[in-house]
Each structure stands twice: as structure tokens, then as C-alpha cells.
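User: quick one, fold this
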Amino acid sequence: MHVAISGNIGSGKTTLTKLLAKHYNWQPEYEEVDNNPYLDDFYQEMQRWSFNLQIFFLNSRFRQVKEIHDSGLDVIQDRTIYEDAHIFAPNLHAMGLMPSRDFENYLSLFELMESFIKAPDLLIFLRASIPTLVDQIQKRGRDYENNIRLDYLNRLNERYEAWISNYTKGKLLIINVDENKFANNPEHLGEIIQKIDGQLHGLF
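Assistant:
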């Protein structure tokens, strides 16, 4: 079983990954943030480091997906390989922060990688407004995220909505994080678990 959680920066992916891993006894796989050598540089100078950052994430997530399927374990994954290619890299290119030749090189590599991987059995999308994202980003207090601009988050949100509205690779569950406060409300988490059970086991 491979379940993946997608969503914008600050939407609660890591928190929900931890909670669901504990509930279902799934193996959690997290995004490489602390070990990413490009993040600090990227948020200081996006145009210079955008290609390096996206290649690092692409490599990391491709390896992660391969390990998930080779392990034979039930796994829940914090963010997917698709978000890099459909949201973050195109957004950087559209903002003039990634040159066209780098972007085309990146997409060519992604398309090759995609031909070797299988989509998650269930994708959970965390939908959140900009105020919710900003509030949660500020609460966790990562230094490199202090420079994230509101227009950058808004552009990402728009691309997430466009991507998720056309997602057809497998089962999809959308959670509105503005209303569902699963991090602090056990009842709200219970609602998500009930919906996951329904998706995976066909209870309704």
C-alpha cells in the first residue's frame, strides 16, 4: 500500500504523515528538508539555485518511490514526485526564475523517470488558503522560510488547484485544512481516517 500526501508549503503534510503512520502502522517517508544542501541558498537567491534545488528534489523523490515499491511495506509519503514537475518547476519557470533550457532539461528527465514509477494507491491533497499557510509556516519557524513571499505561495496554490482538478492517476481524497484542524483536533483526524478507510476499503 502506497499512500501519498500532497499540498502547498505549510499545509500540514508532515504532521498528517506522522499521525496517519502512527494510526495505521504505516512506514513514513518524509521530504528531505533538513538534509537539502540547496534550500537556504534557494530562498536567498532563487534564480541562481532553482535548477539545482529542483534536480535535488527530483532525484530524492525518484529514489524514494523506488525504495517504497521495492520494500513491499505499507508506506505513507510526504509529498509526491508529481508536485515537483507539475507545480514547483513550472512555477519557477513562469516567474523567470528558471531558464527555459534548464526547465526543458528538467521536464525531459522527469518524463523519463515517470515512465519507471507507479502512482500512489491513494493521493491525499491538503487544500489550504494563504492565511492558513502563512499561520502554519510561522508557527514552525524555519529560518529559510522567512523569505517566502505571499505571491509565491499564491502562485503555488493556483498550480496545485489546476493539477489536482486534472489528477487521474489513482484514487484522490481532498481535505480542506481551513476547516479540518487535524493537528489539534482528534475528531477532525477521525474524519480523515474514516474517509481514507472508505477510499481504500470501499466502505462507502
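User: anything notable?
Assistant: The longest strand covers residues 2-7.
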